[in-house]
């Protein structure tokens, strides 16, 4: 499933104030895992963020080694470091792959998908 085909959550307001369970960084990372060639514009639309916010998040993820990209013409191809451990001490030992697996399962559930999902993200071939 590509980001452009991802369903939006029905009944969710366009903007949200306050805290959420899933961070914007996790949402952006999951969108990239879904399509490593996704455009910033499409990530922003899917995550309901501004393009500038997505650019800042991608920069954060790259600076901390969770994400890298190569440029081919006008297209960026992102690579996620799936083996990298999450930042918070309470999540010691949990990897990016674990987080993405959880988010992919949730996306499939919300989309009404019935296909079996493995414990690894479907994106494993392009995830480092």
From TrEMBL:
Q: Where is the HTH marR-type domain?
A: 24-74
Q: Which residues cross the membrane?
A: none
Organism of derivation:
Streptomyces cinereoruber
Gene3D superfamilies attached here?
Winged helix-like DNA-binding domain superfamily/Winged helix DNA-binding domain (1.10.10.10)
Which Pfam families does the UniProt record give?
Answer: MarR_2
Q: What is this protein called?
A: Transcriptional regulator
Care to name a GO molecular-function term for this sequence? DNA-binding transcription factor activity
Supply the InterPro entries for this chain: HTH_MarR-typ (IPR000835), WH-like_DNA-bd_sf (IPR036388), WH_DNA-bd_sf (IPR036390)
């Amino acid at each position: 499933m590509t980001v452009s085909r991802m369903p939006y959550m029905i009944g969710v307001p366009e903007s949200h104030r306050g805290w959420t369970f899933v961070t914007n960084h996790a949402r952006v990372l999951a969108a990239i895992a879904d399509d490593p060639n996704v455009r910033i514009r499409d990530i922003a639309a899917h995550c309901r963020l501004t393009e500038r916010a997505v650019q800042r998040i991608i920069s954060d993820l790259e600076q901390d080694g969770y994400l890298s990209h190569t440029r081919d013409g006008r297209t960026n191809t992102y690579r996620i470091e799936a083996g990298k451990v999450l930042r918070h001490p309470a999540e010691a030992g949990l990897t990016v792959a674990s987080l993405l697996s959880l988010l992919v399962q949730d996306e499939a559930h919300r989309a009404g998908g019935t296909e079996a999902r493995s414990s690894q993200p479907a994106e494993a071939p392009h995830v480092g």
